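Please go through the sequence line and token line underneath and see whether the fold suits the sequence. See right below:
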Amino acid sequence: MKLETLDISIFVIYIVGLLAVALWISRDEKSHEKNTEDYFLAGKSLPWWAIGASLIASNISAEQIIGMSGSGYAIGLAIASYEWMAAITLVIVGKYMLPIFLKNKIYTMPQYLEKRFDNKVKTTLALFWLAVYIFVNLTAVLWLGGLAIETVAGVDWFYGMVFLILFSMAYSLYGGLKAVAYTDIIQVVLLVFGGLFLTYLALDTVSGGLGVFEGAKVLTRELPEHFDMILSSDNEHYLSLPGISVLVGGLWVMNLSYWGFNQYIIQRALAAKNVKEAQKGIVFAAYIKLLMPIIVVLPGIAAVLIYPDLDISDHAYPSMMSLMPIGIKGLVFAALVAAIVSSLASMTNSISTIFTMDIYSKLVPNKTQTHYVKIGRIAVCASLFIALVVAEPFLGNFDQAFQYVQEFTGFFTPGIVVIFLLGMFWSKATSTGAFSAAIGSAIFSILFKIYMSHIAFMDRVSIVFILCLIVCIVVSLLNQEVQENNTVKLDEVSFSTETSFNVASLGVIICLVAFYVTWW
């Protein structure tokens, strides 16, 4: 598929316009120099609508759009469990975890661990997150973005990745989180409506022009196995989505880690004006998550009938974009590229925040705010260069990049969730117990992967989570350390929320139940 001249013109206009908006938002008053709070937390001034939109824009990257659509092509609607379960996870995070983080006035997740435990736990987890963000998340987004540009525009994937890096640097290097968050609003609106339009075109195409509802009937009739929400044990993809475990097992651990303790996601909420704004933004994002399977997964399923001979399932979404009319195709492609760049910018901003505030500032203390902002910008450039170098060797042989990301982060996720949950809600958890859970998560996961590879990935996450929970509790009880604990105590945190938040959260739960009842 190639872009027409009109598509290319619209693409260029959109990209230039977005850069102009980002630079305008990033401007400073003449008398004010950007400090670390301005650069890494947008001056703690984000309103709820910017937080919600930026959460979604950071999430629906190439890894999410292209990768999940590819999984829809290969597996079916069952992959939507990641999205729908994420909605309820967001509500839990907004209700119980955000108040603790905001009360602690932190920049990063490792910073909370230092306040709750000690520097050893903080540094270990900071180094882990830096490695995962660079070699897994950032690399996957960059690689899939390059593939998308190659499929849609016919430009070689490597040059596509170089373009994404340069665009990302121009987009966020100066303005930091504020530039990313506010321009995300434009991208989310365009991506949601563009995605819904593509879903309409896909369903209309498979129905032979008879409309959306007839198209849905055709898909369920021709591809019934693609609409199994709970996969049976004889399904070839059972190891990726192991039946009922999706609802009651490891997916909860994965989602709590991603939405609750993931720096490049939760950083938006940390930049809120106050707790109420952060919670409103969280529940706004939860409602958008309910729409994502319709926007992303359904086109991937429809591609099975429209493009049945794709060599790589991750080509499903870019291939489906050929259904778009001239002009609209260029606009949606521009939004897709901008979303990829937004995710790159979000990840690199979080990488620079962790590196600067948790590693560098401890090694080189007492420098000026301007100096630390400069170091943050250097960290952005370095992380993008590393991701460019390792992208093809790491991901060139993977058919489903979304599953690649889940598999590798799953080695460490159980331990991280144990550390945070016990750290926040169990006063007897010690730094030695937390460190044991972190190390144990990697060791247990690798042993299960090598010697019990028949166990489904999500079941493995559940088992390792329970083992890490036991290890942390036992070690903590055996090693009741005398340590300075500066964290805010639970009785000092208010978990009360406005009626509007509770009502909106109930709406999310009702919608979630309705989706599963419909497709079970």
